[in-house]
Each structure stands twice: as C-alpha cells, then as structure tokens.
Amino acid sequence: MKIIKEKNKVYIKNENNAEVAYITFPQIEAGIVLINHTYVSEELRGMKIAEQLMEAACEVIRSNDQKVIPQCSYAKHWFEKHPLQQDILK
User: Whole-angstrom distance between the N-terminal and C-terminal Cα of the chain?
Assistant: First the structure.
C-alpha cells in the first residue's frame, strides 16, 4: 500500500480509488496545523496503518517547517508514545 502525501493530508487508496485510510491536518494559522482526524477502514485495522500514516504526516509537517497541535485522540496518544517526534508539537 502506498501512502499519498499532500500538504494537509496523507492517505491510502484501494484498488477502486477510494480512500480507505487518512489523516487530515489543516493549517489553522501561519506555520501551525491541526491533526483533526484519523481514519482507517475496518478491513485495514490491526495492520498499524494509522501509525504509518502518522509517521508520514510528521514527515510532511516537518518538511513544510510547521508545528502541529494534535486534536484527535489517536494523534494525542501517538505523540505521547513517540517522544522523538514531539519536536514538531506546538
């Protein structure tokens, strides 16, 4: 599965071109994004897809020289478990 990276979203599409997993992180002010939603479809759960998406989201956020506020519960929990990624927290 290929993770597609955009400025404010990372996601995976299935063979029918439907998004089956994603993380959205819209910009809320200059240099700051908000991870507001994490979704993984039922058929992909248990495969650590959300974790892979979080890593990809951090790459995008870092490459855009931004800081992040994790709003969704998964993102909050993920950052707690990954202290080396906390340098991008606002």
Answer: 30
